[in-house]
């Protein structure tokens, strides 16, 4: 039995980033894009280019362990950015999807009072997410096949 999935192509990804960037810049001028790795790496980098922001940083958070399987709570994985380095900045947190919303909530709470303002952007939001991102491209209930994670990892050929 095959479960129906949301399929994002690289071409659609380019469109999604431009549309999301336009929505963001019309409303907010971030100083830094903070990508949540791994899912948000490409989103944060692409938004950085689209918004003309060179200050792009990464925070590693583990939550999903496999398709439909995740830890009880998201967990930060070192190294984490020092909140003091972000003091007074307007931060845009970028991720691929707000599924439960727990990862975005963890990162927003980590930044806390250290930054001037935190806003969040995702390509997809699930309807049952407990966290509402400030910016989203689309909403879906389906499992999402992103073009960079649809195939299994490359392994040695020998």
TrEMBL record:
The keyword Metal-binding does not apply. Keywords: Glycosyltransferase, Transferase. One of its GO terms (molecular function) is glycosyltransferase activity. Residues 9-149 form the Phosphoribosyltransferase domain. Pfam families: Pribosyltran. PANTHER family: HYPOXANTHINE PHOSPHORIBOSYLTRANSFERASE (PTHR43363), HYPOXANTHINE-GUANINE PHOSPHORIBOSYLTRANSFERASE (PTHR43363:SF1). This is Phosphoribosyltransferase domain-containing protein.
């Amino acid at each position: 039995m095959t479960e129906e999935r949301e399929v994002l192509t690289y071409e659609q990804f380019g469109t999604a980033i431009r549309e999301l960037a336009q929505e963001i810049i019309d409303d907010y001028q971030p100083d830094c894009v903070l990508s949540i790795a791994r899912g948000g790496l490409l989103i944060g980098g692409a938004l950085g280019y689209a918004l003309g922001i060179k200050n792009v940083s990464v925070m590693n958070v583990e939550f999903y362990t496999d398709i439909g399987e995740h830890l009880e709570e998201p967990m930060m994985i070192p190294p984490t950015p020092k909140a003091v380095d972000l003091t007074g900045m307007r931060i845009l947190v970028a991720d691929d999807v707000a599924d439960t919303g727990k990862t975005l909530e963890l990162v927003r709470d980590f930044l806390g009072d250290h930054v001037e303002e935190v806003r969040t952007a995702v390509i997809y939001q699930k309807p049952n997410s407990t966290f509402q991102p400030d910016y989203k491209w689309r909403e879906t209930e389906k499992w999402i096949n992103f073009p960079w994670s649809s195939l299994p990892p490359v392994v040695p050929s020998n």
